[in-house]
Amino acid sequence: CSLQAGLAVLLKAERLFHSSYHSQAVHIRPICRDASCLAVSWELRQTLTVVFDFFSSGQGKKDWSLFKMFSRTLTDVCPLASQSKVYVDISPKNKEKELLEVSPPPTSVHEAIVQGEKKTYAVYDLLSPSLFNTSRSLNVQLKWQRPQDSSEMPIPTLHAHRYVGGYGLQTGEICTLIYNTHPYRAFPVILLESVPWYLRLYVHTLTIITKGKENKPS
Fold it and tell me: Is the pTM of this model over 0.85?
């Protein structure tokens, strides 16, 4: 469907490349067709990750919508898609009072356990016939019912901080700090570093320190 229908309608280049962060990836892996694995199929998975930061852009609001982010709305589902859904995280931080609301009403609500925490998602199924009946376009919006200080925003269970230190090829270094704020649980972490072509890295100087002790990589 390219840019004619479906979720790809939102992929407007000038909006994506002016965001705070964007990452495109293509994953290809073999999958066994049966238990004996005599026949193998290949799975192609394309992902696009984009981060918009409206709060620091001068407006001072955490409210967002599809049109505000992409300058477009969803008008139709791609007829070739067997599944096409939009998930919005509506997990309440304060259990006693809901702080946010989404519109229009979602077609369903999905609950899942993510990193040991219960998450609630509003699901918009583009294949649902009732989704485009009320209007010819879908513009998902999230609004905060009352102002919320930035200091009240929850810290993610897993988060990272990367910075550059030193200078030149001799003393220059890239430091990546990975934090786990969970009180007792450990998580497996896959770290993918995107290095520009002009930056030369020396693997023999790689050091991994965990809880103050050096962890030698294999």
Answer: no
